[in-house]
Amino acid sequence: QRVSVEVLEHLEHLALVDFRDAEGVERLQKAIQFADQLHEVNTDGVEPMDSVLEDRCLYLREDDVTEGNCTKELLENAREKVEEYFVAPPGNIPLPKLEERETFLQGS
Amino acid sequence: LAPWVPVVGLEIHAQISSNSKLFSGSQVQFAAPPNSLVSFFDASLPGTLPVLNRRCVEAAVMTGLALNCSINKKSLFDRKHYFYADLPAGYQITQQRVPIAVNGSLSYSLCIDNKMSQMVTKTVRIKQIQLEQDSGKSLHDDTRSQTLVDLNRAGVGLMEVVMEPDMCCGEEAAAAVRELQLILQTLGSSQAVMAEGQLRVDANVSVHHPGEPYGVRTEVKNINSIRFLAKAIDYEIQRQIEELENGGTILNETRAFDSKLGCTVPMRDKEGKQDYRFMPEPNLPPLILYDAKSLPANMNHQQVINIDWIHERLPDLPSVKRKKLVEQYGILPEHSFTLLNEDGLGEFFESVVKQTQMKPKKVIGWILKDLLSYLKQHSLTVKESPVSSFLLADLLNLLEKKEISSTAAKQVLAELWKGEGKTPLEIVKEQKLELLQDQKELEQICQAVIDGHENE
């Protein structure tokens, strides 16, 4: 079962990954096949595990102020800043649709 | 023409009242220099991890209990993914699968036909309460075509309260939110001040004909006050009805309320249905809460949250406080509503009652009609009142002892309002408002008046 072009385009749009070429898509395909092996196990009546941490204790922190006040350090990473604000484009710039892009996926 | 049934559900985000954020130790404070209350985790720098704030969990448990919810002894954290400049991680940590509290209810009261004397009680079901992170703030600079981002708010703890679509109009929604606000403020779990963004409400609105399936719903955002909430919902209901009656269709979209124009408009940046790719938060184990029965023997106290312990220490909720006021002082239910609706008014009333011989049933009139109308006229809070409970009680005592008339008392109150530091007795003497009690003196005055008329 191959991953469809629609799903690949959807993933590129959602996660902003670029599958780039046939090798990239094949790597994804192999990863899905590897994970699909889980289906061979009968899990009827078994609660799904969603974290290997499930038996660990969730540490609760006291409500004290211990961090912050490092504006200068944080802004050092910013390419653009205005008076201690980070600068971003006016809105999300959506990935152009498949037809409008030069992407390997178009050929598929 | 078949009648329309409007359906209104609410998603309410209440900022948790805590010193530090939900998963980090940076401070929670309104209005601070941009990006000064931001830790490395809040800025999503690599290598940082979330650490859960105990106080935030307690706040959510308190709120769940106050709203008659079942508290989930095991709840989970998830990641909700979407891209936006004020969400540096590219995902929000929330509780999508198993939230901390579910299946509660909230009772609220409405006046029928705007008459306070006819109140009806309604209930709205609470679907769930979940803990989640707040995002940062975006300031749109349209002239330079850019967005300025302040992450001070990023990571602040939120309780999202989801109300089932049991409401049918703006008035019901407003009353429900007002009651929730009072409950949160009484608990102290959130200060719930809408103007400061501590309480944000999104409304889900649809209409349908009785007996038919629910219509397509729209989500209305950007509502900044309870008054606007009612307006926005009522406008949207009307808009949908008109659209459908003209043969149009309703899009499942997000709309923003424009308070200046009093209407809802489609929001930009919200293209169709979002795929949030929910996944379990890999860095947080399940949140386990205990009660008296399940309390573990050998655990550090500080690491244990006991639901029963919190339950025992819940303060009187507004509905209980109102009942007690009615029972203790013999006032009407609608009076108790007004007393609790105004911050500090209930305490003021009780303070006056303690200091005067006048019956509470009479005192309430002075509080709700005279004092409250003065406060409203001058846009003052009870705390800012130039007339203290002591002064008012003093005045009411003079009235009760029949040393002055009711009319004179109102005059004195007007003078007291100026806040010049005079006592009621001083004002009475100054303006010669004393009631004459002396029988003989009264007879002399009456005789003089009669004599005066005889001469004409």
UniProtKB/TrEMBL annotation, chain A:
GO terms for molecular function: transferase activity. It comes from the Eukaryota. SUPFAM superfamilies: Glu-tRNAGln amidotransferase C subunit. The keyword Acetylation does not apply. Pfam families: GatC (PF02686). Keywords: Transferase. GO terms for biological process: glutaminyl-tRNAGln biosynthesis via transamidation; mitochondrial translation; regulation of translational fidelity. One of its GO terms (cellular component) is mitochondrion. Transmembrane segments: none annotated. InterPro entries: Asp/Glu-ADT_sf_sub_c, GatC. HAMAP family: GatC (MF_00122). PANTHER family: GLUTAMYL-TRNA(GLN) AMIDOTRANSFERASE SUBUNIT C, MITOCHONDRIAL. This is GATC amidotransferase. It comes from Quiscalus mexicanus (Great-tailed grackle).
UniProtKB/TrEMBL annotation, chain B:
One of its GO terms (biological process) is glutaminyl-tRNAGln biosynthesis via transamidation. GO terms for cellular component: glutamyl-tRNA(Gln) amidotransferase complex; mitochondrion. InterPro entries: Asn/Gln-tRNA_amidoTrfase_suB/E, Asn/Gln-tRNA_Trfase_suB/E_cat, Asn/Gln_amidotransferase, Asn/Gln_tRNA_amidoTrase-B-like, GatB, Gln_synth/guanido_kin_cat_dom. One of its GO terms (molecular function) is ATP binding. It catalyses: L-glutamyl-tRNA(Gln) + L-glutamine + ATP + H2O = L-glutaminyl-tRNA(Gln) + L-glutamate + ADP + phosphate + H(+). SMART domains: GatB_Yqey. Keywords: ATP-binding, Ligase, Nucleotide-binding, Protein biosynthesis, Transferase. Residues 347-456 form the Asn/Gln amidotransferase domain. Belongs to the GatB/GatE family. GatB subfamily. HAMAP family: GatB. This is GATB amidotransferase. It comes from Quiscalus mexicanus (Great-tailed grackle). The gene is Gatb.
